Amino acid sequence: MTFHLQKLASWLAVATTAAFLAPVDSAGAAPSQGPIVISRVSATDGWQDTGFKVEEGETYTVSYLSGGWTVDRRSFPTVGPSGYAPSVDSQIYQGCKLNDHVPYGTLYARDGTDDATAMPVAQGKILHASQSGSVYLRINDDDRCLVDNAGSIRVKLFKGIPATALTDPFHHESGEAQAPYHVVQGYHNTEGGCVIGRGPDHCQNQLFAVDLEPTEGTTVSPNVYSPAPGIVRWQDRRTGCLGMDLADGRNLTVCHMSSFNVAIGDSVQRDELLGVRRTPWVHLSIDDRRAGRPYQPVSLTVTASGWDHTLDGASLTPGHEDGTSGVGTVQWGEHSYRVRYEEWVGLEGP
Q1: What is the DSSP pairing of strand 282-288 with strand 181-184?
Q2: pTM
Q3: Is the distance from CB of 124 to CB of 167 less than 8 angstroms?
Q4: Burial code of 62-88, b = ≥16 C-beta within 10 A, e = fewer?
Q5: CA torsion, ordered 92, 95, 101, 103, to nearest 10 deg
Q6: Backbone angles phi, psi at 20, to 5 degrees
Q7: What is the pLDDT of residues 126-183, one digit of tens each?
Q8: Where are the alpha helices (DSSP H) in the chain?
Q9: Do residues 137 and 157 lie in contact, with contact meaning Cβ atoms separated by under 8 Å?
Q10: Are 131 and 101 in contact (CB under 8 A)?
């Protein structure tokens, strides 16, 4: 096993040391949901003030744009803000993380100067400010272990929820607005084709489709709630799918419903009831059906046009370094389905 030599410092000793706050480069951008700040976060500095101000209780989004970093430039490769895959993370000395359960290299955020508010945001996340002040960002690597780091990433911060960012379609049966889930079924995964229900489908037809399934043990409502605001343009009762026009003109497809609660032409808000699901998972995908772009699939990532196509604020990029796959069986009522799992660490629901 290869050890990261600089990780041998005691975490307890570091906990009593004040964090070094380095300046970051910030620049304004054309707002779509309010003021936008673009910040560069260095792997060689601790908590870094982005200059992005929030008020207690405000909703804001952190979204990854570009770049990469490493926690040991001599021994480990550059990765994105989701950090190292478990197979690589396990080779690094485990005594110098902000959180023992989160991979080295993961992007972290906090509100103000209170370490208690720190949480991993990985590719991105929709957050609720627990206190007023600046938003700080850093790499998941303790201050005393930064000397052998290298690289930086660029992120976008703005108030509210991205205009076309998708949120999960599940509700706790207790009435809570969202439920823990994971991503399954073939996002950018064409290896061997996808197997689900009657035969191949998403890999060929929906290159960037995801199916979301509630985390095991979670009690959720069978209802399906709209993951974004839009206008219902089509429905297919055979497949249990409907399509919605998003604010940027793209089509959002939501599938696997046994019945619909909305009609063609209805304007729906985020979190509005769409129907009842008939499988453990709900399919989500975005495609471009405007003139000259028939059914062109759109990846869940930040787009060049400035619109955000993400899942709970997280960009899912081709070849995502946290991806793992395997074929398994899911039981739903009297039916058994074979699914190809494609899960991303860090994309559990709130």
Answers
A1: unpaired
A2: 0.63
A3: no
A4: bbbbebbbbbbeeebeebbbbbbbeeb
A5: -30
A6: -85, 120
A7: 888 999 999 999 999 999 999 999 999 999 898 888 878 888 898 877 766 677 777 7
A8: 11-15, 86-89, 202-205
A9: no
A10: no
